[in-house]
Design brief:
It is built from 23 helices and no strands. The protein is mainly alpha-helical. Helix 13 runs antiparallel to helix 20, helix 14 runs parallel beside helix 18 and helix 15 runs parallel beside helix 21. The longest helix has about 35 residues. The two termini are about 25 Å apart.
């Protein structure tokens, strides 16, 4: 597969490296369209590099955000109140930006782009926007108003043991505005990714976290923790603003049908069943947070905060690993739109191996160096040494489920990439949530927050196993458009897990030898890397080989390209 550049000087792949015209002519031929052509490994590698770079920047700002929250407000009842209110933007982000709206919209935009590339009369992309965006906005406004009006009841249901429910209700009313902002941001992001534009969508969490940080420092003295809620509202607006110019250029651009358009692609308008299946799955997945905070609200003050800080740090490797799937999901959707199921399956299996490799390497570091990481990031101001110890303990337990979290995020895209409804993921996620809730209720009194984290890891592992089993190759009358070779995938994962166990033990030992947290962290990270990478390679793990090939593709092509 090769990168197919546009003839126009303005490339349709903002955020990727643009291939020079002379080189493009030899690679793809004149008149090709980058949106309609298969993406090469080098293009995907460069797009993943851009996305991962901005994701890392957003994650680092997320750490600064959490550091600022811990420094200004500590891990007490006020922070707990805000974190209960933060349930609204967390749900909105999952439903409207990450797992929900994007999974439903990217296949729809991919189908519209495939029809446009074949010269269908009119512009199917603009028609899709006109048919979906106004209705979506009305629905989002109604939901935001409902959340604001029922804020006290939501707080009472989410955290009945909260010491200050009125503060949480005030913060919930402010954060309710993010429902509309996140919905518009998710819509723009899905449309741009379908066009293989990744720069603006990858930047949304950079501006979002910057808005929260700025609001806390500017308004924190007078408004207290409510300033963080104001920052959430402001950051949501910035998410939309940063994407609008790129989306407007694509929607306003005149498109000319290619000579000899070929066979038309079957028109499949977005189905209500598809949207419902995707949103219900995302809602069910995010309800893990509800179960965790409900159980933690009955523990001493600070329990919700410790769980939150541990999750935010531990989830960084998962976020980075899923950047691979974020970039390749439009490619899989477009392959299915073109009827190329073999290419779609191959892409999904490679993505699973690479994402697992990335998340396990990061998970090793999180488990091995948890005390050093938390001390360096948070132990200042109102965040004490006892908070560090409690958060590090929780983080180590929570990290046990990182691989399963990544697998769920990667596998669920396969169920919806053809733009058709599937209710199986909802059933798998429901089983996982039931396991989380029952296990958490049984262990919270004996193990406290660590019991809640262990229940989370167990529940998401059940979901990942069910989702993988549902995509097994050769399943008769399978309703899914993509199947994977489960035995090969499990063999690959077992090699990586074996390398991860050895690397974690070695890294923890190296980090414990040095009294300085900074030096101990550096020693632990270096040891984890030096053990995991060669061992995974020696065991024959394809994920490590795929990562090295992607790195070579990026470094080989960067001298010939430029970033827009």
């Amino acid at each position: 597969m090769t990168v197919v550049p546009s003839k126009s000087p303005r490339s349709e792949t903002d955020g990727a490296v643009t291939v020079p015209p002379a080189r493009a002519a030899t690679e793809a031929g004149e008149g090709s369209d980058p949106v309609s052509a298969p993406a090469s490994g080098s293009f995907l590698a460069r797009a993943a590099l851009v996305t991962a770079s901005l994701s890392i920047a957003g994650s680092l700002l997320g750490l600064v955000r959490d550091q600022s929250l811990a420094r200004l407000f500590g891990a007490g009842s006020d922070t707990d109140a805000f974190l209960v209110a933060w349930t609204v933007p967390e749900f909105a982000a999952t439903l409207l930006i990450e797992d929900g709206l994007a999974i439903a919209l990217i296949p729809a935009f991919s189908m519209a782009l495939a029809r446009r590339a074949r010269g269908v009369p009119g512009d199917p992309v603009r028609a899709l926007v006109g048919a979906t965006l106004p209705r979506l906005c009305l629905a989002l406004v109604a939901v935001a108003a409902l959340v604001a009006c029922t804020a006290p009841y939501l707080v009472r249901a989410l955290a009945p043991g909260l010491p200050d429910p009125r503060l949480a209700a005030d913060c919930t009313r402010i954060t309710a505005t993010c429902v509309l902002a996140f919905g518009l941001a998710g819509y723009c992001s899905a449309a741009l990714r379908a066009h293989r534009c990744f720069l603006a969508p990858a930047a949304i969490y950079v501006v979002y976290n910057a808005g929260i940080i700025a609001a806390m420092f500017l308004l924190g003295e007078g408004w207290g923790v409510r300033s963080a809620a104001v920052g959430v509202a402001a950051g949501g607006c910035l998410m939309v603003v940063v994407q609008l110019p790129s989306l407007w250029r694509r929607l306003a651009a005149r498109t000319s049908p290619p000579a000899g358009g070929g066979a038309d692609v079957e028109e499949r308008p977005m189905q209500l069943a598809l949207v419902a299946a995707v949103l219900l799955f995302a809602l069910c997945r995010q309800s893990q947070v509800l179960a965790e905070r409900f159980l933690a609200s009955g523990l001493p003050s600070g329990a919700i905060s410790h769980l939150n800080y541990a999750q935010k740090v531990a989830q960084i490797p998962m976020t980075l690993s899923l950047m691979v799937c974020t970039v390749t999901f439009p490619v899989v959707a477009r392959a299915l739109a073109d009827g190329d199921t073999a290419r779609a399956r191959s892409r999904v299996e490679r993505d699973l191996a690479l994402a697992a490799c990335v998340v396990l390497l990061g998970g090793c570091a999180v488990i091995a160096c948890a005390p050093q990481i938390i001390e360096l990031l948070f132990e200042r101001g109102a965040f004490t040494a006892s908070d560090t110890e409690a958060t590090a303990d929780v983080m180590r337990v929570y990290a046990l489920g990182l691989l399963s979290q990544t697998l769920v995020g990667a596998l669920v895209r396969s169920y919806f990439s053809a733009g058709r409804a599937s209710w199986y993921p909802l059933g798998a996620m429901t089983a996982g949530i039931a396991m989380t809730s029952l296990t958490g209720a049984a262990t919270v009194h004996a193990w406290g927050v660590a019991g809640i984290a262990a229940a989370n890891a167990l529940g998401i592992t059940v979901t990942a196993a069910l989702l993988l089993a549902g995509l097994r190759a050769g399943r008769p009358n399978s309703p899914h458009s993509i199947s994977v070779r489960v035995r090969q995938v499990l063999a690959e994962l077992s090699r990586l897990v074996g390398a991860a166990v050895a690397a974690t033990a070695a890294g923890a030992f190296a980090a414990s030898l040095l009294p300085s947290p900074a030096v101990g962290l550096a020693a632990g990270l270096l040891t984890v890397t030096l053990v995991f990478v060669p061992l995974a390679w020696a065991l024959g793990a394809q994920g490590s080989a795929s990562a090295l090939r992607s790195l070579r593709a990026v470094t080989r092509r960067l001298p010939h390209g430029r970033f827009r």
